[in-house]
Amino acid sequence: MHHLTTPHSSDHPFDADTKVEATADDTFTATISDRWNALAGSPNGGYLLAVCLQALRQTMPFPDPLGSRRSSCAPARRARRGSARWPAAPYRGSR
After folding, report:
1. E strands along the chain, which residues?
2. What's the pTM value of the predicted model, to 2 decimals?
3. Partner of 40 at 20 to 30 A CA spacing, among 19, 48, 78, 79?
4. CA 73 to CA 67: how far, in whole Å?
């Protein structure tokens, strides 16, 4: 049986684990969970992107980004479960 949630529900573990809080203008904190680690024990890149996109959503004048892009040359560094802090701002440039 599947557990269905609404888009704004926080019942799902992924919603809880991608939650971010603003600490200053365009600066956010999040708790990185080990629930979404890849096989090597590092945080899954898609999970880290989802956390970053939650912060980005709070800086944008509309609710959802139209697109995102992430490139990785190596796995995310092995991280212990805990807090992360970073600045976030939408890129407003063009090609």
Report:
1. 20-24, 27-32, 82-87
2. 0.67
3. 19
4. 20
